[in-house]
Amino acid sequence: MTAPLARPLGDDPVLVEILAGLRGSPKTLPPKLFYDAAGAELFERICELDEYYLTRTELTILRRHVGEIAALAGPRAALVEYGSGAGVKVRLLLDAMEDPAAYVPIDISREQLARVASELAAEYRTVPILPVCADYTAPVVIPDLPQRARRVAFFPGSTIGNFHPPEATAFLRRVRRTLGRDGLLILGVDRRKDAATLHAAYDDAQGVTAAFNRNMLARLNREYGADFDLARFRHRAVWNDEASRVEMHLVSTADQCVHVAGQTFHFARGETLWTESSYKYDRQRLDALASGAGFSVARLWTDEGERFWVAALEVRPDV
């Protein structure tokens, strides 16, 4: 979790990132701020919404094809999950895999990571559970794993879409280095589809996504001495067809000044604070991403509506 405000600025990379984003044009905030305790609870509610197809669609694909995924991973594989969260999807893999050598959950939320790791250790007594509390968007050092175990990375949930394309490539290159020459990556990927479906998924009728978005400001108020008035920012979700992404913004409803960590930022009426991008992939974009990071697309599994992919990417040893 992020450090208290009393910590020196130079020692808090998240705060450095926040302030740099607020000085930019357009102003931005890093999506990692979504997932404090309140944000995690709101996201669980989002996943239950009719409009938010992503989680249930991916789970349907995983349940239907987990045997094939486990067979592709092979016996005695070491599983490394980036952004382990509540550990729901990984249980499907651990149940299906043949004698997994280890499981390494990586997550930035220390409390949730400790709780989930403890639960999994009790459920899977023969599998070493080796949690790592870290921001996986930066380089991560993982624990020593059995030398002969094939390394399999698991990155579900379409979170790859939250990276801008150059960032996604850089992230996957780091994953590739962690996996080694015979590694495998199981990746959740949201597919391009009609704008109406995408807009509804990110701007639901009940306003849960809007609350989730504004919760970032509440977190800044609590953890970084900010004074955002949440009522003066409204949620906006926009489909950018050219860039193939949904953008989430918070729109200032008035001219106002906001203070964060002792610094002042002016917002004009109508100015937006860009909080998240969610890129959507077609096959051409997915192939380009995989190739640029040193992977090849080995298998693709999708749902009946062709809304989502679970992709198996194999390391290209020639790169």
From TrEMBL:
<keyword id="KW-0614">Plasmid</keyword>
<feature type="domain" description="Histidine-specific methyltransferase SAM-dependent">
    <location>
        <begin position="17"/>
        <end position="314"/>
    </location>
</feature>
<keyword id="KW-0489">Methyltransferase</keyword>
<protein>
    <submittedName>
        <fullName>Methyltransferase</fullName>
    </submittedName>
</protein>
<dbReference type="GO" id="GO:0032259">
    <property type="term" value="P:methylation"/>
</dbReference>
<dbReference type="InterPro" id="IPR029063">
    <property type="entry name" value="SAM-dependent_MTases_sf"/>
</dbReference>
<dbReference type="GO" id="GO:0008168">
    <property type="term" value="F:methyltransferase activity"/>
</dbReference>
<dbReference type="InterPro" id="IPR017804">
    <property type="entry name" value="MeTrfase_EgtD-like"/>
</dbReference>
<dbReference type="InterPro" id="IPR035094">
    <property type="entry name" value="EgtD"/>
</dbReference>
<dbReference type="InterPro" id="IPR051128">
    <property type="entry name" value="EgtD_Methyltrsf_superfamily"/>
</dbReference>
<keyword id="KW-0808">Transferase</keyword>
<dbReference type="Pfam" id="PF10017">
    <property type="entry name" value="Methyltransf_33"/>
</dbReference>
<dbReference type="InterPro" id="IPR019257">
    <property type="entry name" value="MeTrfase_dom"/>
</dbReference>
